[in-house]
Design brief:
Layout: H1 2-17, E1 21-22, E2 27-29, E3 39-40, E4 46-49, E5 52-57, E6 67-71, E7 79-87, E8 92-101, E9 109-117, E10 133-136, E11 140-143, E12 147-151, E13 157-162, H2 166-170, E14 179-186, E15 189-194, E16 197-204, E17 215-220, E18 226-237
Parallel strand pairs: 12-16
Antiparallel strand pairs: 1-2, 2-18, 3-6, 4-5, 5-18, 6-17, 7-14, 7-18, 8-9, 8-17, 9-10, 10-11, 12-13, 14-15, 15-16
């Protein structure tokens, strides 16, 4: 019994020193709110400001290739991830998961993404893509906001039914302030929530391209100056 307690304590210390810690209900805090310990990215675009993880592109630092801040923790399989975000009107970002590195580029990921954009990114007055499942550098649109899809063996999505109307889903997104996103990945089923509202759901039956584990990261996107902020990162393992 004493040996088991020692092992558990050692694991907790290791997690804390690496920049995240165990929370109640088996959640792990992935971000310490002080610096980017436990994460890897280009400091030209990523920093911690007032306790908030901040990604920003300025007129002087416009990029030609998407760049990511990548979590250096484990590559979870079945999990629930929750984080609060706020994005500028022209912003374009996303949370990648079950992803892998692009060897030919620094700080680049390919894989599933909960897509996020600002209300004026596409001149619509509302976010066009927030909540959808987009596969970065892969099969692209797996389920747009409001869709529940099944990906076939050919890698193409088939629409099954809707998670809600466009107006209804948009009414749950705060365009100008903070929102809470949640990703639930269990087996080949992937659910994206914003403010506790299901925005998209994918069941991936593509044996070649689907992934059951991989890296987590956040993105700043090509396309001009923008800012995105994240706080309250937490993750828990699911059976």
């Amino acid at each position: 019994m004493l040996y088991r307690k020692y092992i558990a304590l050692a694991a907790l210390v290791a997690l804390t020193l690496s920049g995240y810690k165990t929370l109640k209900d088996q959640y792990i805090a992935m971000f310490n709110g002080k610096d980017l310990t436990g994460w890897e990215g280009d400091p030209k675009y990523w920093r911690v400001e007032n306790g908030i993880m901040t990604g920003e592109i300025t007129p002087e630092t416009v990029i030609k290739v998407n760049t990511f801040l990548i979590w250096k923790g484990h590559a979870p399989q079945n999990f629930e991830l929750t984080v609060d975000y706020r994005i500028s009107a022209k912003g374009n970002s996303g949370v990648n998961y079950r992803s892998s590195r692009v060897d030919s580029l620094p700080y680049a990921l390919k894989g599933y993404q909960l897509d996020l954009d600002g209300k004026d990114k596409y001149g619509l007055g509302y976010p066009r893509h927030s909540g959808q499942n987009y596969e970065e550098r892969g099969r692209q649109f797996l389920a747009t906001r409001g869709q529940r899809t099944i990906i076939g063996a050919d890698g193409k999505p088939t629409f099954i039914d809707s998670t809600g109307t466009r107006a209804g889903l948009l009414s749950h997104i705060n365009y100008d302030g903070w929102n809470t996103l949640r990703i639930v990945a269990r087996g080949n089923n992937l659910k994206h929530y914003i403010n506790n509202t299901l925005m998209s759901e994918v069941t991936d039956n593509d044996p070649v391209n689907r992934r059951f584990d991989g890296l987590i990261g956040v993105q700043v996107h090509v396309g001009g100056p923008m800012k995105v902020e994240y706080k309250g990162w937490k993750l828990r393992k699911l059976e």
